[in-house]
């Protein structure tokens, strides 16, 4: 969630949600109650998230359930544009595919309800591996799990991610294509990130991103299979019930393309939160080589373009971290002289990865 929501009036929001939910539930407002409404800061910068418990009284019976509202951000911090409707559509399209995702109950495009479009989904109970603080350094994975349990957690989360790549996309997710941006899904993605860079940062502060974008334009793989790609594929975007992965979260970067990009993002983000922070990887987690081999075995795709998509992953992440740093300066969490927007866990890892491919 972006910091903009720190000032949201939660009592007023609860009243508005009750008024909106009542007709959707075919109930009078007095039969609908919202409790424990909260806007957790731990849900990131890219969207606004509200958690709440819904209680409905109908026919002498009371039903309670946990729900989550995802709101389009009022201020675009991470991305130049934001399509909450597309995310809801993707989640709805995945409901019967075997990919574990939360069930979307309602989508509301009318900004007059909460000020922005939003959708409401069922809350999935469980625990999410942390990236702040990093799961390799502290938290329940460090403190509670044995090495064998960590290995199982990794593989269960990883295999859930792999299910995305087996989804039939033709006729179901064609709407993710953007032909106006280029001939291939990769061309379209590169056009998007070139625009992202022009929109969100100064080239002089990010020479490694400039080099990376040049590398990506001049080294496009000849082979470009197409599959559905999650986009933000990592353990910290998964919910676990015990060691079982029960939900994949955060679909802001979903797209069609070579699915090796999800593998690259999975491993690049893990590298950023270890090597990029000068931390040792947690014992029990499988190696990159083991993970790549398992991905090929499960999906049937090859990893010949893995290095290319690693650079793409780290470029994307570096841009996002630059935006986070800029926003932290804007709201005075850090001062203007702070170099976090240009020097961070993603940018230092990108620099090393560029040296490895040149």
List keywords for this structure.
358 residues, alpha+beta, Phosphorylase Kinase, domain 1, Aminoglycoside 3'-phosphotransferase, Chain: A, domain 2, 2 domains, five-stranded antiparallel β-sheet, two-stranded antiparallel ribbon, globular, disordered N terminus
Structure description:
The chain is α+β, with helices and mostly antiparallel strands and 358 residues long. It has 2 domains: 3-122, Phosphorylase Kinase, domain 1; 140-357, Aminoglycoside phosphotransferase (APH), C-terminal lobe (Aminoglycoside 3'-phosphotransferase, Chain: A, domain 2), CATH 3.90.1200. It has helices at 10-24, 84-94, 140-144, 147-165, 185-200, 207-218, 260-272, 288-299, 306-330, 345-357, and strands at residues 32-38, 48-58, 61-71, 104-108, 118-122, 227-229, 238-241, 244-248, 255-257. The strands form 3 sheets. A 5-stranded antiparallel sheet has the order 1-2-3-5-4. The protein has a two-stranded antiparallel ribbon with strand order 6-9. It has a two-stranded antiparallel sheet with strand order 7-8. A hairpin with a 2-residue loop joins strand 7 (238-241) and strand 8. It is globular and about 70 Å long. The two termini are 37 Å apart. Residues 1-5 have low confidence and may be disordered.
Tell me the layout of helices and strands.
Elements: H1 10-24, E1 32-38, E2 48-58, E3 61-71, H2 84-94, E4 104-108, E5 118-122, H3 140-144, H4 147-165, H5 185-200, H6 207-218, E6 227-229, E7 238-241, E8 244-248, E9 255-257, H7 260-272, H8 288-299, H9 306-330, H10 345-357
Antiparallel strand pairs: 1-2, 2-3, 3-5, 4-5, 6-9, 7-8
């Amino acid at each position: 969630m972006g910091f903009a929501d720190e000032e949201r009036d939660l009592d007023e929001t609860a009243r508005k949600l009750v008024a909106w939910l009542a007709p959707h539930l075919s109930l009078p407002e007095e039969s609908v109650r919202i409790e424990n409404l909260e806007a957790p800061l731990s849900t990131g910068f890219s969207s606004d998230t509200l958690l709440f418990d819904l209680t409905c009284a109908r026919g002498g019976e009371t039903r309670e359930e946990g729900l989550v509202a995802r709101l389009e951000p009022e201020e675009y911090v991470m991305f130049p544009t934001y399509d909450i409707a597309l995310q809801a559509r993707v989640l709805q399209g995945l409901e019967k595919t075997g990919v574990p995702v939360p069930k979307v109950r309602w989508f509301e495009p009318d900004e007059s309800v909460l000020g922005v479009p939003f959708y409401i989904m069922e809350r999935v109970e469980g625990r999410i591996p942390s990236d702040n603080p990093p799961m390799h350094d502290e938290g329940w994975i460090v403190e509670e799990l044995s090495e064998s349990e960590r290995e199982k957690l990794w593989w269960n989360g990883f295999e859930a991610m792999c299910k995305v790549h087996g989804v039939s996309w033709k006729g179901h997710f064609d709407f993710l294509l953007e032909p106006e941006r280029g001939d291939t899904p990769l061309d379209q993605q590169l056009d998007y990130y070139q625009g992202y860079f022009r929109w969100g940062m100064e080239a002089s502060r990010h020479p490694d991103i400039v080099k990376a974008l040049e590398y990506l334009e001049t080294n496009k793989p000849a082979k470009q299979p197409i599959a559905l790609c999650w986009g933000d594929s990592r353990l910290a975007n998964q919910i676990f019930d015990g060691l079982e992965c029960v939900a994949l979260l955060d679909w802001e970067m979903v797209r069609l393309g070579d699915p090796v990009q999800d593998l690259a993002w999975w491993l690049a983000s893990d590298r950023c939160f270890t090597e990029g922070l000068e931390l040792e990887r947690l014992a029990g987690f499988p190696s990159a080589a083991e993970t790549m081999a398992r991905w090929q075995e499960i999906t049937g795709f090859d990893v010949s373009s893995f290095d290319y998509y690693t650079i793409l992953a780290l470029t994307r992440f570096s841009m996002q971290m630059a935006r986070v740093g800029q926003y932290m300066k804007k709201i005075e969490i850090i001062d203007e002289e702070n170099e976090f927007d240009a020097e961070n866990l993603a940018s230092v890892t990108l620099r090393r990865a560029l040296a490895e491919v040149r």
